Amino acid sequence: MSVFFDSPISQDLVAQGDVETLLESIGVTEGIRVAESGEYHQLLAAVHDVAEHVLALPDYIACTDMEKYPRQNVHRPSTEEQEFGNAWAHKFFIQGNPNGELLKGKTLCLKDNVNVAGVPQFFGTDAVPAWTPEADATVVTRALDAGVNIVGTTICENFCNSTSSFTSAQGTVHNPYAAGYSAGGSTSGGSALVGSGLVDIAIGADQGGSIRVPSSFCGCVGLKPTHGLVPYTGMGSGDPINDHAGPIARTVTDVALCLDAISGKDDFDDRTLGSHVYGTSNYAKNLRSSVAGMKIGVLVEGFEHRLVNADVKRTVQNAVNGFAKLGATVEEVSLPLHLEGPAIWTIQQRFAGTFGLLGYANGRRGLFSTKYEEARQPWTNETFQKLFPSTKNTIINGLSLMKNYPGLYVKTMNIAQQIKDSYEKLFQEYDIIVMPTTPTVAPANVDWKRGDSPMSALKPSMGITTNTAIFDVTGHPAMSLPVGFAPSHVDDSILLPVGMQLVSGLWQEQKILDAAYAWESANEWREVGVPDVKEQKLHTKL
């Protein structure tokens, strides 16, 4: 480091007294002696020189084969081209490998936090200008190699910080079954398009329920895999602990096929160190349409929570009874720590989410988007004001918690490990546990405008992740499976999809897929729960 001591750069960046000012910011007012101040100033200047040196080095970017997979007709869709309000972020076409087998002939859309080289990304915000990734996310390359045709990126909610579908700066997304109702978030656009039948598969991201919540609301099968099963390289991160990528489709088979295509170890992503070798999984081929001999636990705390709507509870309970008819052993189970999930997720996410939003995330290997960081940093009065209240709230909460509870994150993660261990113990006895994915069907969208009450913006999402968020912290695989309809609490003549959440032990995706496939094979979910569902005039193109 001494080679940088005499660099003129440091004199411009570090002023006398900066050392003392930095220490005062953490409450240390007598941390160094006066006689030492000059030398610490010199050392501080040196590390700034090192920082400037690193910034001047050329970036390292994963190679994307643009000749093999050219991007065609990349454009922001017109009003006439949009679906369900504003489901599309950008439309384009990338033809998959004609020799690919798993996903040949299928169409795929990507949540707008998934990097596609040459395609501008919004990440649901207008607080910063759109940036254009220089390399494809790993899941994009793998899906194309499997033969899928990618048809666009789809709206995600503001910095992926909401389970509503009206928070994106690019516009509101409506439920495919009823205009004016939420498509869920934060993978809102992709779930609406898949639920409607316009696109076969979406790849989403899930940090608190962002695959499963919109899948539940839109009548999709959505899988959040075990943490690290699917690479997160080239995707906008909420927090490395919570980051999960996974498929959304209309059938369990398509979810399994997509999982085979995109899962497996990635040399760039240290989250995937426990995963299988890429290309060796057989989730789709191994699907079983029988649950005979399977032991299924009905999680009492997931059903009896005060927020769970009676119609949703009844619909999911009827679906669970279907497992018993198919030969599974079905029993009630209790895990009281499940009820601590929302609190543990909230604290963990506020700390880590704030670090990420402020550009302080650290502690893992990977390839990251410097284009995104350059567009986002630093925050200013102007850019902060443009954030949606949920994103503002994350930063405000996180800064306060860091200042007032410096040991809280450590204890939170200890309890998270306790909950994870408790689930794992439960999965030694039960193959899967089940509960409602969301406590209600899709709520109505809010016509929120910048300057309106922050609470009015946040209220529609409150409590939605009661059963989903904890499994992002523990990393367990969890799927939302559509199992019927229930009436809206706003208008009981409006019938909306209900999702059942299936959870299993770490790396036990096959058990979830098998149970879901067996239930799906034996039931037509659109005819379950409400006899006159066919009479509703649906806003879909099924």
Tell me what you see in this structure.
There is one protein chain. By secondary structure, the protein is of the alpha/beta class. It folds into two domains: 2-56, no CATH class; 72-535, Amidase signature (AS) domain (Amidase signature (AS) enzymes), CATH 3.90.1300.10. Helix content is 33%, strand content 15%. The chain is built from 17 helices and 14 strands. The protein has helices at residues 9-13, 18-24, 34-56, 138-145, 188-196, 212-218, 252-262, 300-304, 310-325, 341-357, 370-376, 381-385, 389-404, 408-426, 454-458, 470-474, 509-522, and strands at residues 72-75, 88-94, 107-111, 149-154, 174-175, 178-182, 201-206, 221-224, 244-249, 295-299, 329-333, 432-436, 478-487, 495-504. The strands form two sheets. The chain has a twelve-stranded mixed sheet with strand order 1-2-4-3-7-9-8-13-14-12-10-11, sandwiched between helices. Strands 5-6 form a two-stranded antiparallel sheet. A hairpin with a 7-residue loop joins strand 13 and strand 14.
Number of helices: 17
Rg result: 24 Å
Terminal-residue CA separation: 64 Å
For this structure, the CATH topology of the largest domain is Amidase signature (AS) enzymes
Q: Can you count the beta strands? A: 14
- Structural class label: alpha/beta
So what's the overall shape?
globular
GO molecular function: catalytic activity
Organism: Aaosphaeria arxii CBS 175.79
InterPro entries: Amidase, Amidase_dom, AS_sf
Protein name: Amidase signature enzyme
